[in-house]
Amino acid sequence: MKIIVPIQLVPDLVEELVIDKSGTKLDPDEISWILNEYDNHAIEQAILIKEKSGAEVTVIAPDLEGADDALFTAAAKGADKLVKIAEDFIEEPFNVHALARMFAKIIKEEDASLVLTGVSASNSLDGCLGAILAEYLGMPYVGYVSGVTIEGNKASVHKEFPGGLISQLEVTLPAVLGIQASETPPRYVPFSKTRQAMKERKIEEEEGEFDLAGGLTPKRMFLPVVTEKAQMLEGDEDEIAEKLVAILKERGII
Amino acid sequence: MSKDIFVLIEHLRGEVADISYMALAQANSIARSTGGKVVAVLLCKEAGNLSAKLAADEVLAVESPALEHFTGEVYQAVLAQIVKERQPGLVLMGETSIGSDVAGGVAAKLDLPLISMCNLLTAEGGKLTATCQICGGKIMAEIDVPETATVLTLIPGKFAVEEGQREGAPVTKVAAPAIEQPKVVFKQYIEPAGEDIDISKESILIGVGRGIGNQDALEDLEKLAEAMGGVLCASRPVVDQNWLPATRLVGKSGKRIGGKLYLALGISGAPEHTEAITGCDLIIAVNTDPKAPIFNIAKYGAEIDLLDLVPVLTEKIQDAR
User: Fold this and answer.
1) Rg from Cα positions in chain B
2) Within an 8 Å CB–CB cutoff, is residue A42 touching chain B?
3) How confident is residue A14, by pLDDT bands cut at 50, 70 and 90?
4) A125 with B96: Cβ contact below 8 A
5) Is this complex scored with an ipTM above 0.85?
6) Helical (H) or strand (E) element with A142
């Protein structure tokens, strides 16, 4: 069976996010792109299925800085085929619809049984990729997935609801699943293995065609307006601990 | 297209989700300015008590045995049909396990614009603006809501659950459109594994996030929790690593917490986490990132590595008791 994992790269939220002069988008020069965390789980889930039931795993990424790293790391984990969509994505980083259309075109040619993608991405404004992609592919979609077992042409899927309640669903393939968490945490691969993949493996490039329909253009972007920011406790760990103890005592918590 | 606002009511095992009441409150606030009705759309086997407290001008109950358990596929097909027939101006639902499975498909099927992660909708001069919270709560984006029919997914914002509750909305029952043989079939519910404490009932909670770095840090954190007479809970990354069980997860996909104190250690404060901690009397946050959004809702904060702070704090609390 063929599993395709279309991944998204998102701004690294540990870095400072800078809004550009237009005030309507993030400054692309200041963004450090990293693999969307949920997509890391989607890659892991694909590899777990491959190990259990046998599958060919293809990972597709938009050509953003960080894509090669993400793809070669996926290869080091066991992905069989790496694809990059060649297009200048920087100008419209938030258009999930455009990305879904590009992914759909490639996936349609691949005859995939299963498409696994991260359930959401932190920079999306126009919906989550999986649900839109599923509609473009004419496949059913299940999101918030935390477990997948393949049984013939069906998948037994665990979908999460608040409070940890799980709904077990039987999904006839092909289908698109939005992965919230892989069954076991994403594996760690030493950089030496990724470097080896960089030497030995090749990334295929596919032409992309940017169709921006469905995307949104913010009229303004801004940092959250804080009415009352936390009162910051200053000092070293000793002084801060003292202050915290005083607060907790005053409130009768300890 | 009418000016009506449809709100998809999310329910599971006989209970309406809080986010649906919040969405109704939001819808009512907009409808006052734009005119049009607020219609609660209830897809279910039987409306029964589900409609009892929906603050809407009308409850549209679509009843079918096929709607007994939620599957995105059937919900999407039914909702798309209703939206096509009745042409509302807005379709609201939660940015949740239910809403997110439905919104993308309905919007793409009907070629409607879709705005996600919206935490406030405002109306001015008949024009609507959506404010969305993205990048883990670090960036806000303001978007003109198109004047064509639009689908929006909401995250908790300024509206309280009670504001979306009112008795006596008239219920209109409509037959479900023909539903094709589904490709997604509900089999069973699986309860969260294991016996554990119920964090939603605890009074003193110590939340740990990605900032703890690795599992080894948990030993010190357990000691701190014990010294404080509280319990540990966590944000998603910690649970995904299996460092703490899913029963300890606080957030959109976990539990909401209340109680006297929430000490958030190494938690950045993404909206999916913070929406579940607003009921706590006192929030204290410790994080090395001074721009972490958690400091925007905490009463007290400290910009320090929690691994340095925790052993010292434990000792001082033990001494103070």
Assistant:
1) 22
2) no
3) confident
4) no
5) yes
6) strand A141-151
